[in-house]
Predict the 3D structure of the following.
Amino acid sequence: MPTGKKPSKARPGKADALSEHLSKRLKQLRSEKGWSLDQLASACGVSRSMLSQIERGTANPTLTVTIRIAESFGMGLAEFVESPEASRSIDVVRANDPMHHYRSDKDCRIRTLSPLHLGKDVEFYEISLSPGGTLWSSPHFAGAREFLTVSKGRVHVESGADSQTLARGDSANYPADVPHQISNAGRSEAMVFLVVIYH
């Protein structure tokens, strides 16, 4: 999951729904903890001003920022962003569901393909990288691993001190409890499917 990117501001339409949901969720959890914005900023490493913007619904955080906030509450990403929904035997994630779009900028597009109320130990993502785009991630929880399959283009994967270049159809898995990144190694868009497993 990415770090080092400034959160993009919410855009009208789909992004507004996500911003509103995260705003309510953050306020709720911070209130339950009895934390001030400064205390939360210290716990998650996100600036007080950014947290304030998220709570006001004026900023749509990157996936990395969302993960940092979630982990400060002792949660995985899915648990942090879950929205109560009626149970169904077939759970569908629609392509245009704003709750499943976490980042969309010139370098990278990310959406989760796993239901937000699913078990909290597995997360499934679709990631598109523009030429030159890189998705950089700080370490996840101890024991976490990522399983990646390239569906389009070529990518370069780094995990700790190790690295590999993968082409369409290649798969790899690697430790995600160390700094890691996925980079587009080609001249056209690259797309990967990523499963994150927490132990």
Observations:
- The chain has a mean pLDDT of 83.
- The longest helix spans residues 14-33.
- Helices lie at 14-33, 37-44, 48-56, 63-72, 77-81.
